[in-house]
Q: What sequence folds into this?
């Protein structure tokens, strides 16, 4: 990521070319790192340029202003997170296994990408209107994905409790619970992704009703059905 | 709330006096209304003064700058919400009834105080750093309260799944789920507080495990224990 651009500060049109997608990825990787380490306001485009090894004019040409670059970071990180979750969920599995895989993939992603989670969540949530809107849009995308997964689980099992437009609010609640746990995790970094994922399973799969009955959720020993 | 201050624009020291607490409440009522209707930036202190019927100099003297006034609104509304929840939860009830009452009180409060919920949540979440910090602080207070309630429920039932420092992250997850559902509710205003509260019970008390088995949570007919 600190590799210098061979073209130097002001690349001539005939400089050795990388595909645009590759350059954009380098810029976004650098920007996520700089924004999360410095915070949005103190971060400078000079620093992004330095870390990316790509000239400032090229950054502006590809991804626009600092504000636009930050918005692009949020979009990119949201997409990566959703790909990580979507990649492990298999509609042929039973709902419990799908939920466990999705939840574990979420916390694994957050754990491996503390930088990007911070960009996504803390920074975006504290920098005011345009980024809060990006964050809300990312949340809507996540809710839509989870809602589709719950709908599929419901239609496969043929059950009524999930049906009739009930999945979207439940997906919103699950998303909010996941975000809140990931936020809590930042203050308790010694916890493993698996331990965090089990907490969300305890809430969302088991429910407090089972917990007060002494039944907790375990990945290895899945609880007997009532 | 639109009652005019008898002292007019610049009240002399000997103007007919209201206790400070009453004036502050009038100012905060007016500010919550103006901020939520206009948004933080477009809202003016002139308008707050007009709606409160209290002169601008007195507002500045009592509650400080526009920024400080907005922060005071968030604190006051958080306190009101927590009093509403704390007021219905009775430690002598069983955990299920406590959770149901608390969850219903939350959605009843949000439903009756859409203005203040907006101030609390949307505006604070989109206005940048100082208010995001107030919001985070309010969230911490809510998590601490719910955590204490869950701890009490756990010690009363003598169960292990809630014990050993497990209640705080579960309280955080429940808070996040509640916030996300309240946010979803803003886009679906026809839903009743009770319908929203049942959704949160379905997630947090029953869990998806019960829902895919066709067991949903009902306030009247509480589900048989497994």
A:
């Amino acid at each position: 990521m600190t590799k210098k651009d061979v073209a130097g500060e002001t690349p001539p049109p005939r400089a050795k070319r990388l595909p645009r997608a590759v350059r954009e990825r380098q810029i976004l990787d650098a920007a996520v790192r700089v924004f999360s380490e410095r915070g949005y306001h103190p971060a400078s485009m000079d620093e992004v340029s330095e870390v990316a090894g790509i000239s400032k004019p090229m950054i502006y040409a590809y991804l626009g202003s600092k504000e636009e670059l930050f918005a692009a970071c949020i979009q990119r990180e949201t997409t990566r997170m959703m790909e990580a979750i979507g990649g492990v969920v298999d509609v042929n599995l039973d709902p419990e296994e799908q939920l466990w895989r999705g939840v574990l993939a979420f916390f694994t992603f957050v754990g491996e990408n503390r930088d990007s989670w911070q960009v996504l969540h803390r920074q975006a949530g504290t920098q005011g209107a345009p980024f809060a809107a990006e964050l809300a849009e990312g949340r809507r995308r996540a809710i839509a994905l989870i809602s589709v997964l719950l709908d599929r689980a419901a239609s496969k099992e043929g059950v009524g409790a999930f049906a009739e437009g009930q999945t979207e609010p439940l997906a919103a609640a699950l998303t909010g619970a996941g975000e809140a746990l990931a936020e809590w995790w930042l203050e308790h970094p010694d916890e493993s992704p698996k331990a965090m994922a089990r907490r969300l399973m305890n809430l969302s799969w088991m429910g407090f009703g089972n917990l007060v009955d002494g039944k907790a959720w375990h990945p290895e020993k899945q609880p007997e059905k009532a």
Notes: Residues 1-64 of chain B form a domain with the Arc Repressor Mutant, subunit A fold (CATH 1.10.10.60). Chain B has nine helices and no strands. The mean pLDDT of chain B is 81.
